[in-house]
Amino acid sequence: MKNPPDTSASEDLGNDFKKALDAGWLPIREVARQTGVNAVTLRAWERRYGLIVPQRTPKGHRLFCAEHVQRILTILTWLNRGVAVSQVKQLLDTPQGLTDPVGNDWLVLRQTLLQAVTQLAERTLDDTVNQAMALYPPRTLCEKLLMPLLAELEQRWQGQFGAQMERVFVYSWLRSKFGARIYHNNRQLRTAPLLLINHSDLPLEPYLWLMAWLISSVDCPVEVFDWPLPAGELALAVDHLQARGVVLYSSKAMNLSQLTKLLNGVRCPKMIAGSTVRIHHTELSTRTAAIADLSLAEDPLSAHQGLIQRGLI
Predict the structure, then answer these.
(1) What is the pLDDT of residues 65-86, one digit of tens each?
(2) What confidence tens digit (pLDDT) does each residue in 16-33 have?
(3) Which UniProt keywords are present, listed alphabetically (predicted)?
(4) Greatest distance between any 2 Cα atoms in the chain
(5) Are 299 and 231 members of one domain?
(6) How many Å apart are CA 207 and CA 142, to the nearest integer?
(7) CA triplet 126, 127, 128: central angle to 5 degrees?
(8) How far is 111 from 306, CA to CA, in rounded Å?
(9) CB atoms near residue 241 (< 10 Å)
(10) How many CB atoms lie within 10 A of CB 15?
(11) This prediction's pTM
């Protein structure tokens, strides 16, 4: 007869982890929440570059202190200045080198992606973005790589033969790519979702999907409706989903005369986002005072920040 399993060792390890947390050490999930750098990226920084070396419990759990968090924020500062992640450790360890110019990794990545688009090379596009996703936080990746790439492509497509082919290729890939990640993240979460609605007449709004991915990356469920809803049905969708908030996204002009009717009965925080905010800036600014819980954001980054400030994500 087998002896019963000895649980005392695992209980001791669990107690060690709890004692460490009580002493002020932070688990990787909490560090990810505070810094916006997900756990996968933090582990990659440790494993590949030695940028962060956390303490380990006997069971292998990573534990971080306040100094680790500050170091992560300093790393983000360098990444946002265009420094390649492979060069950051040298800058952190050599203070006298902090004022020296450093090579820009983002330009190289953007040119790789641009060439992949012109060749309709989906595997290259996907592999390059996957590698970047493993090394850079979602917000940094959007600000320094994906949004500049989309802006550069829009300029390239002005009156160019083959522009629609490239546009459909990129937008379809982007929707599939981030839609799959959002779906996977949603499956891990059980809290009320944020409802994002494509409120334009465009079949694909790429910045809508970037915004959805940014929100999803901070462990907030996201429900994306890639088509406008009529007045009445928006409130019905919010009620069915028990949504924590709703974002109407459009890069085009909106019919503002229908806005009050559209939002009637929507009893949760509301946001209008996208270039439509710039198009209708004056009138929308006035309406935010008249419609309860309505805020504005011109792009995915400001929308993401605004939702954080309002406690919705």
Answers:
(1) 999 999 999 999 888 887 888 8
(2) 667 666 677 899 989 988
(3) DNA-binding, Transcription, Transcription regulation
(4) 80
(5) yes
(6) 10
(7) 95
(8) 31
(9) 17
(10) 10
(11) 0.83
